[in-house]
Amino acid sequence: MKMLPLGKTGTQVSALGLGCMGMSGMYGPSDRAESIATIHAALDAGVNLLDTGDFYGMGHNEMLIGEALKGRRREETLISVKFGALRDPSAAWIGFDGRPAAVKTFLSYTLQRLGVDYIDIYRPARLDPNVPIEDTVGAIADMVKAGYVRHIGLSEVGADTIRRAAAVHPISDLQIEYSLISRGLEDRILPACRELGISITAYGVLSRGLISGHWQKGAVQQGDFRAVSPRFQEGNVEKNLALVDALRAIAEARGVSVAQIAIAWVAAQGDDIIPLVGARRRDRLDEALGALDVHLTAEDLARIEAAVPKDAAAGGRYAQAQMAHLDSEK
Fold this sequence. Notes:
Layout: E1 3-5, E2 12-14, E3 17-19, H1 32-44, E4 49-53, H2 60-69, E5 78-83, E6 85-87, E7 93-96, H3 100-114, E8 119-124, H4 133-145, E9 149-155, H5 159-168, E10 171-177, H6 189-196, E11 199-203, H7 237-254, H8 258-267, E12 273-277, H9 282-290, H10 298-307, H11 320-323
Parallel strand pairs: 3-4, 3-12, 4-5, 5-8, 8-9, 9-10, 10-11, 11-12
Antiparallel strand pairs: 1-2, 6-7
């Protein structure tokens, strides 16, 4: 497994991380045994970064990872946790809390659910508009000093917020959506991160399966986030799948899958970018790991750019109401 530096922390991270959200119902039903087997397969392959959120399945995802890590050496795994999203008993999203007291409360429950003594990378999932980022990051910094957190990350925030946060405490990485059809970070956010020595952990590299080469129109199940995602809606999905067809021709010429081309493209954007793949099954994980062996030439990159130009996607990456809450989109 190729290892890369995680920002300026001195910590080495695998060139591919495993995003575990889909193992807790966000994309419809998942199989618990297969989810744990997939986590084990990832770790055995040298993947050392597991990404989760305390609100994925209202704690289910953390408990699942905790179960999967039993009997494993703790220091061999980097656990990245997002916090702050609020949900009610019906699973509805009801806000975000980045207050210092809430940060420390969220963390204490996370440690309990995961069954660990510390979190490797702890990050607010969003910017709380009612709490200065300095206060939120300062509270995590207190937890770093106390030994409960190793590194501080951010998620879906803009360049100005990144600079303010980094002035309080060194930031290891920014987690943000990045794919062939989600490239908004390239203009201001990525340059700011590179100036400050902050890595990117890129989620959505297959745009929630849309550009995986496997997804077909009408495949959304009940309880699947994609049922309300603009890019999967009638009128948009057809245009987006046409981009996938163009990408497929390039993949076939290289003798690889569409998903592998899409993941390899993200990885090719720099050694400070670590793709997170949301594999829920071992076969999908194997396919994603194969992307690490796909070395794109300048000609390949030019062909990919021509097939899927920047801003070619139809529809936003989230519904408009959610986009309005993203500091990274301002």
